Amino acid sequence: MMSDSISKLTNPVSPATIPAEAPKGRVEDAQVSDNLKLEAGTDKFVLSPQAEKELSSAEFDQALVDRVKAAIADGSYPVDARKVAEKFVALESMIYGK
User: Fold this and answer.
1) Which of 19, 27, 57, 68 is most deeply packed, by most CB within 10 A?
2) SS in 3 state form for 18-56?
3) What is the mean pLDDT of residues 70-96?
4) pLDDT tens track for 43-53
5) 17: part of which helix (H) or strand (E)?
6) Over the stretch 54-74, which tens digit does the pLDDT of each residue have?
7) What's the half-sphere exposure (Cβ side, CA atoms, 13 Å) at 87?
């Protein structure tokens, strides 16, 4: 039995039981389709044809987007700290089930 250094409670500690697997090969050895090549140190984001179609027909208020971007850039975009904190609490509740 070990003692938790923060709470000073005594709890049984068990080792992780997930077995490690040996790597099956190097990334460079992986089979890659002709239209997607892996390059060391680069990331690539590729949209599906359906996503491309949906984005091309998406409707939004460009003037509003421009105003929000400008407000963020010049530091005048209002941020309600209480609402941000409430959203973090809700997110943690979803993640941890509290």
Assistant:
1) 68
2) CCCCCCCCCHHHCCCCCCCCCCCCCCCCCCCHHHHHHHH
3) 94
4) 888 899 999 99
5) none
6) 988 889 899 999 999 999 999
7) 6
Residue in this structure with the two tokens 């179609």, named with its chain if needed: 53
Scored b (16 or more CB within 10 A) or e, 51-63 reads eeeeeeeeeeeee
Task: For residue 56, give every residue at least 6 positions away whose Cβ sits within 8 Å of its Cβ, in sequence order, or none.
Answer: none
Q: Coil, helix or strand for 81? A: helix
Alpha carbon separation from 11 to 5, 14, 85, 87, 96 (Å, rounded):
11, 10, 32, 33, 21
Coil, helix or strand at residue 2? strand
Query: 36 Cβ partners below 8 Å, 6+ apart?
Result: 44, 46
Tokens of 79: 């941020």
The amino acid that residue 57 corresponds to is S
- Report the DSSP pairing between strands 10-11 and 2-3: antiparallel
Structure tokens at 53: 């179609």
